[in-house]
Write a structure and sequence with these properties.
- The structure holds 2 protein chains of 2 kinds.
- By secondary structure, chain A is an alpha+beta fold.
- Chain A has 2 domains: 106 residues, 3-layer Sandwich (Rieske Iron-sulfur Protein), CATH 2.102.10; 273 residues, Naphthalene 1,2-dioxygenase Alpha Subunit, Chain A, domain 1 (Alpha-Beta Complex), CATH 3.90.380.
- Chain A is 28% helix and 25% strand.
- Chain A is built from 15 helices and 20 strands.
- In chain A, strands 12-18-17-16-15-14-13-20 form an 8-stranded antiparallel beta sheet, with helices on both faces.
- In chain A, helix 6 packs across helix 15.
- Chain A starts with a helix and ends in a 15-residue tail after the last helix.
- By secondary structure, chain B is α+β, with helices and mostly antiparallel strands.
- Chain B has one domain: Roll (Nuclear Transport Factor 2, Chain: A), CATH 3.10.450.50.
- Chain B has a 6-stranded mixed beta sheet with strand order 2-1-6-5-4-3.
- Classes of the chains: A alpha+beta, B alpha+beta.
- At the A-B interface, strand 12, helix 8, helix 13 and helix 14 of A face strand 2 and helix 3 of B.
């Protein structure tokens, strides 16, 4: 039995008991106390553009149908027939006006309302025995969206999404609001890795230190020039409330020339200039930082890089964006869902090349991702045993023994939150501090729905 | 936008007889290729791909019967041309492609081969099933990928291709049989 109080105290002082990366007991706690109260990304509105479009997404073991109803409203409904618990939708995506349970034929409109109940009068005595007209598939306890990103929360009393995202929304806009049209998503690629979900989330949040080593090969083959150690350590790491990320320092220039440097065409740059706030523009124009990887607690990550997508001159790079979720399966297994995202208003040629850039770098075949996952699988496997309970990993990079930072935070940083230049595990500590806050707080018992009880 | 149907598509026409020389050459091409892929002799493999190669592995999705598509719209695991395949191969040749160092033990089982005359006289359409077994390290569980493949083979006009009948791979579409892969990455080729 783990002493939870001691474990959380260790994590908060920057020491990680290694077994947190493969511990069934902790995983059961995470299931309730982290994922039972956090806003979980499930889909983007562009994945269900037309009435009747749906995708089926999970929050751990809970399956939800995310559907756009005939009136255009997007809902998330628990994918369980109200009668005997069968999944009412067994496809992953499609378009449907109704979902009919194959077991006894109860059917539901795409807004969740129960509409068909065979032999209602004969079997139940009609409304006198079962009030059909009042029933709907259970809605997600809370549902909200930001820039078209749809999140749900299993806690009906969770603070609103916008409040949860807080200052991180400033950074989320760089990835998801490059024009008024917003982004469109393709995918996800889905695959299972024998790795604990936290490792990917922490890595994307702030591990610029791994880039020059883990990803040496992509520099060597001329795919992406930036991860060289000399460049990577010039980037800033920022943390803002529920998330944080890494950046690269761009060569001297203006807002426009720096966005051109990473491969954006002028027509897109102009829309970014118009759509972003003054502070968002200054982060690029004055501070000279360009977003790269990031994570939103607990398990949503983003990445923005600009590799070379065709043979030719070194200057011909093109940016891509990926959204990914580290969906926990168990203490030692994670399903990765990796989407390609692109500004919906981008020129078609840009979208095509950006997609190609994504496939080469990230996702199931990505040349960055391949080496990342190799590391994470190895860590998880090694964290299972008794020796991992005796080793506290050092998560204090960037801090001196007296807890003062090795380098002071950036004085000039246009964005909210705190930023540092150079290597440091500021964000991994921030991520695990939120994790610790969740773990020590028991979850209130959720309200129950009694279906058609007298 | 909807995806394509790759799983249950039926090919019109009759397969070439198994005794047909073109079938024999195509079959030999696939078997010889599988040895190159098992031993990760990717330089030799690249030399068998035409310059306009398209190497595609769509993401499969579960859809209701009759929906008309079984792949994710606009998304693939592989959607490669010669440049991107060449970069992947170049990466494996560096000393820092950690995911394959130590290397996986690979076995490509190729079966159910049938061959059709292609749209052009120097082209063949070849269907096959492939099962890839991959084992890494000593304690990890091994992983499998099962897929159907539809290839277009084109005869090398220069006759230089080092393959049975001088065939080269011009197009490959891989219909993977899982929607969620049970393999840590696709640092392999199918």
């Amino acid at each position: 039995m783990t002493d939870l109080g001691r474990l959380l105290a260790d994590v908060r002082r920057g020491m990680i008991p290694a077994h947190v990366y493969n511990d069934d007991e902790l995983f059961r706690l995470e299931r309730d106390r982290v994922f039972g109260r956090s806003w979980m990304f499930v889909a983007h509105e562009s994945e269900v553009p037309r009435p009747g479009d749906y995708v089926v997404r999970r929050v751990l073991d809970d399956s939800f149908i995310v559907a756009r109803d005939e009136g255009g409203t997007v809902r998330a409904m628990f994918n369980m027939c109200l009668h005997r618990g069968m999944q009412v939708c067994r496809a992953e995506m499609g378009n449907a006006s109704h979902f009919r349970c194959p077991y006894h034929g109860w059917s539901y409109r795409n807004d969740g309302r129960l509409t068909g109940l065979p032999f209602h009068r004969e079997a139940y005595g009609g409304e006198a025995g079962f009030r059909r007209s009042e029933q709907s598939l259970l809605p997600a306890p809370a549902l909200d969206s930001y820039n078209g990103l749809i999140f749900l929360n299993l806690d009906p009393d969770a603070p609103p999404l916008r409040e949860y995202l807080g200052d991180f929304a400033f950074y989320l806009d760089f990835y998801t609001k490059q024009s008024p049209a917003g982004i469109e998503l393709s995918g996800p690629q889905r695959w299972r890795i024998k790795a604990n979900w936290k490792i990917g989330a922490e890595n994307f949040a702030g591990d610029s230190y791994h880039t020059p080593q883990t990803h040496t090969s992509v520099v060597e083959i001329g795919l992406f020039r930036e991860p060289k150690a000399s460049k990577r350590k010039e980037g800033a790491l920022y943390w803002a409330q529920c998330g944080g990320g890494t950046t690269y320092k761009l060569p001297p220039g203006t807002f426009e020339s720096r966005l051109r440097y990473v491969g954006y065409p002028d027509v897109m740059i102009e829309r970014m200039r118009c759509g972003w706030t003054d502070a968002q523009r200054r982060m690029i124009a004055e501070d000279g930082f360009m977003i790269s990887a990031a994570s939103v607690f607990p398990n949503l990550s983003l990445v923005h890089n600009w590799p070379k997508v065709a043979a030719g001159s070194d200057d011909e790079v093109l940016p891509f964006i990926s959204l990914r979720q580290w969906q926990p399966v168990s203490a030692d297994e994670t399903e990765v869902l990796s989407w390609f995202a692109v500004d919906a208003a981008a020129p078609e040629e840009f979208k095509k090349l950006s997609y190609k850039a994504y496939l080469m770098c990230f996702g199931s075949t990505g040349m960055f991702e391949q080496d990342d996952v190799e590391n994470w699988v190895s860590i998880t496997s090694t964290a299972a045993g008794s020796m991992a309970r005796r080793l506290l990993l050092n998560n204090r990079m960037g801090l001196l023994h007296d807890d003062k930072p090795v380098t002071p935070p950036l004085a000039h940083w246009a964005g909210p939150g705190t930023a540092y230049v150079g290597y440091g595990e500021y964000n991994q500590r921030a991520m695990l501090a939120l994790w610790a806050d969740c773990l020590e707080q028991p979850l209130a018992e959720a309200a129950r729905t009694e279906l058609g009880a007298p | 936008m909807t995806g394509q149907l790759v799983g249950t598509r039926r090919r019109p026409g009759t397969a070439l007889a198994f005794s047909d020389e073109r079938h024999l050459q195509a079959h030999q091409f696939l078997v010889d290729e599988s040895y190159l892929l098992d031993t990760q002799d990717y330089e030799s493999w690249l030399a068998l791909l035409t310059d306009d190669i398209r190497y595609l592995m769509p993401v499969r999705v579960t859809t209701a019967r009759g929906t008309g598509f079984d792949t994710s719209p606009g998304m693939a695991h592989f959607d490669e041309d010669k440049y991107s395949l060449d970069r992947r191969v170049a990466r494996f040749a560096t000393e820092h492609a950690w995911t394959e160092d130590p290397p996986s033990r690979l076995r490509h089982y190729v079966t159910n081969v049938r061959c059709f005359a292609g749209p052009a006289p120097d082209e063949l359409v070849v269907e096959s099933a492939v099962l890839l077994f991959r084992s890494r390290g000593d304690v990890r569980e091994s992983a499998l990928v099962s897929a159907g493949r539809e290839d277009v083979l084109r005869r090398d006009p220069s006759g230089a291709a080092d393959s049975a009948g001088h065939w080269m791979l011009a197009r490959r579409t891989i219909a993977v049989d899982e929607s969620v892969l049970r393999m840590q990455n696709l640092a392999i080729f199918l």
